[in-house]
Sequence to fold (112 residues):
Amino acid sequence: MGKYFFLDAPGGAGKTYLAETRLCYSRGNGYIGLAVASSGIAETLMPLGRTAHSRFKISIEINQTSFCGFTQSTDVSKVLNKAKLIIWDEASMAHRHCFEVVDRSIVHVMGP
Fold:
């Protein structure tokens, strides 16, 4: 079962440092940790980071019934199935439909 955590702090408080440390710890222990961000600038600050739209194949126009653009047979779903950690930087900048689309797609691909 997955857990969700939300970290909110002012700029310069060390959020990116905490995310990098957690990713390095997870990856150092042999787990897959994915780093995504809501903007292209933020993703460059994360180790091996990508934008959420790129990583999860989120289409530009989404609504409450949309799905991501990956299926069970794609490399994206295989990586997501093995991932132990996903860090989404600047999550508060993304529309809530983005999170719902990713969640719905992951549940659809991996099962409830």
Q: What stands out?
A: The longest strand covers residues 83-89.
